[in-house]
Amino acid sequence: MKWQLVIPLIFLSSLSLQGKAMAHGVKIKHQFTPAIKINAAFDSGTPFNNAEVIVYAPNDPAKPWLKGTTDNQGNFIFSPDSSLSGYWEIQVRQAGHGGMVSVPFGVDKSHKNANYRSNYLASSSGDYNPLQKGLMIGSVIWGFVGTALFFSRFRNQQRPQEEH
Question: What are the φ/ψ torsions at residue 80 (nearest 5 degrees)?
Answer without folding.
Answer: -70, 160
